[in-house]
Every structure is written in C-alpha cells, then in structure tokens.
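Q: Convert this sequence to structure tokens.
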Amino acid sequence: MNLSHKIEDLNKEASNNSGVRPDYMYKNILDQKRYIDVLSCVHEKKVLDCACGVGWGSYIMAKSGAAHVTGVDLSKVAISTAKKYYNYDSVLYIQDDIGNLPNQKKFDILTSFETIEHVEDPVGFLKILANLSHKETVFFLSTPNGFCFKNKGDSPYNPYHNEEYTKEELYNLFSLSGWFVVEYKGQHLMKENTQEIVEYRSFIRRFWQDKARSDRFGITYTLLGKIIRRVLGNAISDPAHKRDCTPAKVCKGYQPAYHYFKLKLK
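A:
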C-alpha cells in the first residue's frame, strides 16, 4: 500500500474522536465560522457539501434556506452520525467518493472545508468539482496553511493529511484545474517571521504527537497527561480558539493558520 492510499484509508476509517473531524456536538469554532460565512449565499441554492463530516454544516445551510444540500463523505461513521443528529428534509447524505457523483448533476454552491489536504490528487479533485459546477457556481474552500502548520521541508504532522499548501501553491492548483480566486481570506492571522508562527507550528506537532501517544497507551495516558499539563500550565490548546477566527482579509505581511477561498470557474 502506498502512502497516499494509506492516508485515504485512514480518513475513511477515522472515528469521530480521531482528531480529523469534530464529534456530533460540533464544538470546533473554526469549522462553525466557515459555514456561517457561507449562509448568506445559500438561499434557494443547490449546495454540495464535500467532505461534510458529521453534517452540522449541511444542516445549518439547509435550515438557512438552501433549496437542497447534498452532503458527501468517505466515512461511514461520519455519515451515520450526520443522519442521526443532523437529518433534515432538504438534506441528502451520501457515503461515497466525490468522484462517483454523476457529472450531469450541477450545483450552485460548493463547500469544501478542510478537504484538499487529505487527497492524493488535488488537481484531479478540483477538476471533479469543476465538472459538478456551472458558470455561476460559487466554490468556498478552506485548508490549513502549509506555511504555518509545518516547518519548511517537513511532511504534515497530521497523519491524515497528504499535503498542506501555501497560498502560492494553491493558486497554482486552482489555475491547473480551471478555477480562479474571487476572494482570499484567512482564519487566525499571524504576522510573518514572528515567534507566534513558530509556536503555532510547535502546537500542531505537539498535538499530533500527543494524539499518537494517547492512541498507543490508551485512556490512562490520556487522563494522566491532561492532569500533568494542567498542573504545569502547559495545556495543548489551539491558539486559534483564543480569539475571533471569522474568515478575514489577509493583509500584506500576515499569514493565516487556515486559508479561506471564494472561487469560480474560469
């Protein structure tokens, strides 16, 4: 099995507490802010929620007036959770690869939040979404910023990620797949060449190292580790959760922890 197929299988089989997606309570404020940013655009639109996870975003888009929402995810566990907790008359949940949707089906709005970093062939993935779009389709995409998530030359610290991209790398992928950027925003902006970005990379590395140890050594390590970190004042918590992380304009000299793009077909 090659690395890319291994990552695909990891994502497909990941549990809702794996760290790769929120659980049914959907407490991740970063994800919430992404979907909330889209709500003003979905009224009476046909929406494709690509990699919908446990379905919170599909549900709130439907509740906000979307004509229909199709939520697609590879994970059987995620789709089962979505159907149980976030079912709605105008939402259809499908457990499948996005490439298996019929091309004749066209959507008005696409959302793909925290998806492209997981896929083996990002250009192919973006072309699939282009084939599910029409001239007026608006595509919202978010993904971790490779500049902030890892040190230069490193592979992603998150074992569920195939790659994490810089802004420039993503612009190139969009150009190769028929998309152009209408608007570029970001979440949790940090000034370039500062200790804040160094510490953010360190947080990402420590989070996944700790997750691997918890998976290996079980609940005893997890609980003991939390107690020790609390006593030492060294909790592993996402700095992006400590202030407003609404998608915002990225000014020169700043880097976002997460890219947030609004795209259309060329």
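Residues 41 and 202 are 36 Å apart (CA to CA).
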